[in-house]
Prior knowledge:
The protein is an alpha+beta fold. It has two domains: 22-242, Bira Bifunctional Protein, Domain 2 (BirA Bifunctional Protein, domain 2, 2-Layer Sandwich), CATH 3.30.930.10; 251-295, Roll (SH3 type barrels), CATH 2.30.30.100. It has eight helices and twelve strands. The protein has helices at 22-32, 48-58, 111-124, 182-189, 196-202, 204-207, 211-232, 237-242; strands at residues 38-45, 67-74, 92-102, 135-138, 142-145, 148-159, 168-178, 251-256, 259-269, 275-279, 282-286, 292-295. The strands form two sheets. A seven-stranded mixed beta sheet has the order 1-2-3-7-6-5-4, sandwiched between helices. A five-stranded antiparallel beta sheet has the order 11-10-9-8-12. A hairpin with a 2-residue loop joins strand 10 and strand 11. The model is unreliable at 1-17 (pLDDT under 50).
Amino acid sequence: MPSTDAPETQALPQAAGFLPEPAALASSLQAALPHFPQVGWIDVTGSTNADLLERARNDHGKMMRPWLLGTHLQNQGRGRAGRAWHNQAGASLMFSCAFDVFLPTRQLPSLAPLLGMASCEALRSLLAPDQQARLAMKWPNDLLWDQAKLAGILIESSRTGTSPVSDHHLIIIGIGLNLQGAEALASLLNRPVADWSHISAADTTAAQVTASALVSRCAQAWHQALNHVTSAGLADLPERFARVDALAGLRIDVLDDGHLCQTGIACGIDANGHLLLRNTHGLHAISVGEISARLAS
């Protein structure tokens, strides 16, 4: 993570949620992330995930990764399972990173909870210690503040066509973190939504956090998490995940394509990143990327 004296932009005005100008934010992020060969921030685009994927397809292996690309407005953003991402300029912090990852294909689904966990840990580090537990992770990769959705993460993978190594994958991680306007978004989506202004109102430490710090802490955490899983594997994933788990011990429903599949008590995750659910029929491992979970009503 960047040091505390890393150059950063002005603190986010919590009443308005305005971001610094794209060029200023890009410059600050490049200073905070010197090991990222490409860092960019633009006014508007369709999807930062799609932009990085297209860039990777066209570079023919010439440009070293990781890369970061952010935008003030995404007009074709996507959430998990192809859902639309609702946003307005300045209301959300939206950026993506591209990484080269060397893992067997069978382990790629574990990246969703791994990177969600890393994001939660990174953002908790920007809060006062007595407020950190209010920020948690809902499997597989949503971030919650007091059980209301603060951020969503979208992870996409592709084989790198120029690499002769079979376990070489391009991983693109995108995040949309609400800065303001949670009430309107909650009304639109008919579910609890949080934003960074809520956190700042409860935590004076969070109120001093800059846009650059939010982005750089997450980007650095993703980089470290991917390096760790490549070198050390996934054995410590359940233990680390347990410290940020928003569902542990709660009764949940598991749905697939809108249909109820399982109901039971959430019991953490296994080393493959599967959600563990216990009911009268035993312990069940729920697959990442195919099934979504929600709190039972």
